[in-house]
Inverse folding.
């Protein structure tokens, strides 16, 4: 069933049409890669779907409820409870151990620290991070830090995970490992994944690829998933 849908998205910055009429649908356990040249509107699309930027026209629906017209407070509460985010790098708090970085979204929702850290620890083994719970981000490799970021995106059991160039700072081999874990763990959790990437090999791990060009969908394709 459809988790996230957007219809007729238009976003203008002055004379620039960042988005010029875009439709997107993502289902449960579905993963969608958004590709396209620099300046084509990928980030704008991700930010509108995630309730960070408001569209000038069109609608965004989360399980059939419109979210594009919510007030700022309800929108930020919704982002915290229903969405998870993975960025390119630099998203972990350097002074906190890995397990507390992962626990943060739960603590922001009001879960007591001990309980939040206990739930956070359960994500370390599935992400190949066993034994790294007390490491500070500065003591982790790039790939390990991104896997901690994935754990943090999933810990509150969101409906949708948004990833913006999640492998942008990693070498090829590490990129493959990270995107494989990101897609598989997100699917197991039952969430949908929307990922912006420049890397076709990374995009190929998603169920579908959306090509954006000049604020429009140029092409979409479906991979055969084993
Ligand atoms: P086919 O090539 O079999 O006719 P399509 O090209 O219409 O199929 O679509 C391929 C896949 O991409 C389908 O799973 C479809 O649901 C999905 N899709 C099509 N348009 C969009 C969109 N705007 N956003 C997200 N997914 C889309
Ligand atoms: P991409 O992520 O594909 O590189 P963006 O969504 O960032 O593309 O940008 C699409 C277009 O909108 C570009 O022409 C960009 O310069 C413009 N744009 C994006 N954000 C802003 C902004 N906050 N202010 C002005 N122009 C913007």
């Amino acid at each position: 069933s459809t988790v996230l849908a957007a219809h007729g998205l238009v976003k203008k910055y002055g004379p620039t049409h960042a988005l010029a009429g875009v439709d997107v649908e993502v289902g449960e356990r579905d993963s969608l890669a958004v590709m396209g040249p620099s300046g084509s509107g990928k980030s704008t699309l991700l930010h509108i779907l995630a309730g960070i930027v408001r569209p000038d026209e069109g609608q965004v629906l989360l399980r059939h409820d419109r979210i594009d017209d919510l007030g700022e407070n309800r929108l930020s509460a919704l982002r915290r409870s229903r969405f998870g985010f993975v960025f390119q790098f630099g998203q972990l708090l350097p002074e906190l151990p890995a397990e507390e970085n992962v626990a943060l979204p739960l603590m922001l929702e009001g879960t007591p620290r001990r309980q939040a850290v206990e739930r956070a620890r359960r994500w370390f083994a599935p992400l190949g991070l066993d034994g790294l719970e007390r490491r500070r981000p500065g003591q982790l490799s790039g790939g390990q830090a991104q896997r901690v970021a994935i754990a943090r995106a999933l810990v509150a059991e969101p409906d949708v995970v948004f990833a913006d160039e999640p492998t942008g700072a990693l070498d090829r081999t590490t990129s493959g490992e990270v995107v494989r874990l990101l897609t598989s763990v997100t699917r197991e959790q039952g969430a949908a994944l929307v990922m912006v990437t420049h890397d076709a090999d990374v995009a190929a791990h998603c169920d579908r690829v959306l090509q954006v060009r000049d604020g429009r969908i140029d092409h979409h394709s479906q991979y055969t998933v084993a």
Notes: The first strand starts at residue 2 and ends at 13. The chain has a mean pLDDT of 95.
